[in-house]
Amino acid sequence: MADNHVRKYGYPVLRKKCRPVTVFDEKLKKFAEKMFSIMWAANGIGLAAPQAGDTRRMFIVDLSKQDFDMKPMVFINPEIESTEGNTVFEEGCLSFPGLYLEIERPAVVVVNYQDIDGNYQSVEATGLAARAILHEYDHLEGVLFIDHISAIDRDLLAGRLKKIKVG
């Protein structure tokens, strides 16, 4: 199982499409707890399993510091049901420390998923919650936030990306 650090840009696991979770047991709960520990230690609001070195289809989001009504959430086997609108906002990623980019994403997302006990859930999210869900969902598909910018902008960032990249 993964150790306790965020995988940085360059780790091959970040480009892998994740496999569905089929076993909902104590090991899965322990892994979710470990993911929260890694994310909180890095001052993040979301973390996908690949960032913790694992290829299971799961991610976590915790916006409780931004919105006291929101509880930390675990999304397992998520599927995007629908999206609506578009918004551009500055976004960062724990796998790219210190890098923030203007990224266009849908303004609203409806996602179906399983919770930590395997129960089916659905949530509609807007604002920062929608952005965090879509960002973490991308990780499960092997997509990184730099994939949402133009090739020219990526070329302009080449020096900074090289400094971040491991391997």
Give the helix/strand layout.
Blueprint: H1 26-41, E1 46-48, E2 58-61, E3 73-84, E4 87-92, E5 100-105, E6 108-114, E7 120-126, H2 127-140, H3 151-156, H4 158-164
Antiparallel strand pairs: 1-2, 2-3, 3-6, 4-5, 6-7
**Rg, nearest Å:** 15 Å
- Return the average pLDDT rounded to an integer: 95
Widest sheet: strand order? 1-2-3-6-7
Query: Could you say how many structural domains there are in total?
Result: 1
Give the helix level as a range of percent: 25-40%
CATH superfamily: Peptide deformylase
Strand content: 25-35%
CATH architecture: Alpha-Beta Complex
What is the CATH topology descriptor? Peptide Deformylase
By CATH reckoning, the class would read Alpha Beta
According to DSSP, the number of beta strands is: 7
- Globally, the shape reads globular
Structure, explained:
The chain has helices at residues 26-41, 127-140, 151-156, 158-164, and strands spanning 46-48, 58-61, 73-84, 87-92, 100-105, 108-114, 120-126. It is of the alpha+beta class and 167 residues long. It has a single domain, classed as Peptide Deformylase (Alpha-Beta Complex), CATH 3.90.45.10. A five-stranded antiparallel beta sheet has the order 1-2-3-6-7, with helices on both faces. A two-stranded antiparallel ribbon has the order 4-5. Strand 4 and strand 5 form a beta hairpin. The model has no long low-confidence stretch (mean pLDDT 95).
